[in-house]
Amino acid sequence: MAHSAPHDRKRDAPLDGRSGAEEQGVMRPFSQAIPMKFLRAREAVISRFRPILHSHQITEQQWRILRVLADLRETEILSLSEWCLIHPASLSRILPKMDAAGLINRRTNDADKRRVIVSLADKGRALVEEMGAETEAAFGELISEIGEERLERLNRALDDIIAILSGPDRSRPS
């Protein structure tokens, strides 16, 4: 049985002004762990889109691939991996299935036969167009619930966090 994560800020807040890490001795309470908050937020968002994906028999990873290819037209596998946040080994298992289903095309790079270029097939493009209206409607519902201004602030904050944490090699001394 799945348990919902606690979200009671008053209960999670330290009573004496100490940080959660100090109160626990080593770590802040699990409910306040930033990675878990990001995962809970991701799940709250993707749960709105999952029924659409299921109705079209598409996985979350396949949808990310289709969406990236719809924007980029074509790209090499390593670049696709970075854009989709899918490990190259996982991508190498997903792409042949999508190719066999007629959703994507794969071809070798003329200049370097070791490199594979991936693009949307006509069937994949049609699926993106078909699902586009449904996903935009779901996104519109999210905006209605969250609020456009809050969503814009969230986008800016996430962009800032990504830029800061993805910045120069943090292991080098300043």
List the helices and strands and how they pair.
Blueprint: H1 9-12, H2 20-24, H3 34-55, H4 60-72, E1 74-76, H5 77-84, H6 88-100, E2 104-108, E3 116-120, H7 122-146, H8 148-165
Antiparallel strand pairs: 1-3, 2-3
Describe this structure in words.
By secondary structure, the protein is mainly α. It contains 8 helices and 3 strands. It has helices at 9-12, 20-24, 34-55, 60-72, 77-84, 88-100, 122-146, 148-165, and strands at residues 74-76, 104-108, 116-120. Strands 1-3-2 form a 3-stranded antiparallel beta sheet. Helix 3 packs across helix 7 (122-146). The longest helix has 25 residues, at 122-146. It is globular. It starts with 8 loop residues before the first helix and ends in a 9-residue tail after the last helix. Residues 1-13 have low confidence and may be disordered.
Strand content: 5-15%
The order of strands across the largest sheet is 1-3-2
Mean pLDDT: 85
Rough shape? globular
Separation of the first and last Cα atoms: 48 Å
Protein name: Homoprotocatechuate degradation operon regulator HpaR
Biased composition (Basic and acidic residues): 1-21
Pfam family, one: MarR
InterPro entries: HpaR/FarR, HTH_MarR-typ, MarR/SlyA-like, WH-like_DNA-bd_sf, WH_DNA-bd_sf
